[in-house]
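Quick one, tokens below. Sequence please?
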């Protein structure tokens, strides 16, 4: 009876340790994916397109305001500069972020308030962002971005 209890206790302990280690690994993977998203966002906001580009997979798919850019090269030739210019002059406040990693893929969902001048008008925007990342030999790379935004109501700010 005592031996059965010890075996049961050890079995439970090893199973719990493996589950905890697996959960910890997923948390660390998600944190690494979030770090890649933060590097991209910081570089874009600083106008450093070379650093921002380093976080994007060459075949990244970007959806924004009903438009589509189907590669890193297309984004760089299109909206990247205007996105960087807008973000350089904006105050971005992250209000919520969640992330999950499983295997070679991770997703990071972010919500932000953005304040920026547009001409003489203060523009207040609520922005949502979803990024999907794939783990490669070079680390986490962003393979998909979906940006969506709307004007914020004045009473919330």
């Amino acid at each position: 009876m005592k031996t059965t209890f010890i075996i049961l206790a050890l079995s439970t302990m090893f199973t719990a340790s493996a589950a905890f280690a697996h959960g910890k690994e997923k948390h660390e993977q998600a944190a690494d994916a979030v770090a890649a998203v933060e590097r991209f966002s910081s570089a874009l906001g600083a106008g450093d397109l070379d650093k921002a580009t380093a976080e994007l997979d060459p075949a990244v798919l970007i959806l924004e305001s009903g438009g589509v850019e189907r590669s890193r090269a297309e984004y760089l030739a299109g909206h990247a500069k205007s996105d960087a210019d807008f973000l350089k002059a904006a105050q971005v406040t992250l209000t919520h972020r969640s992330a999950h990693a499983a295997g070679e893929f991770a997703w990071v969902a972010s919500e932000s308030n953005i304040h920026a001048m547009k001409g003489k008008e203060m523009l207040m925007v609520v922005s949502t962002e979803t990024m999907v990342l794939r783990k490669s030999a070079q680390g986490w790379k962003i393979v998909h971005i979906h940006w969506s935004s709307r004007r914020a109501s004045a009473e919330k700010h």
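The chain has one domain: 2-156. The two ends are 66 Å apart (CA to CA).
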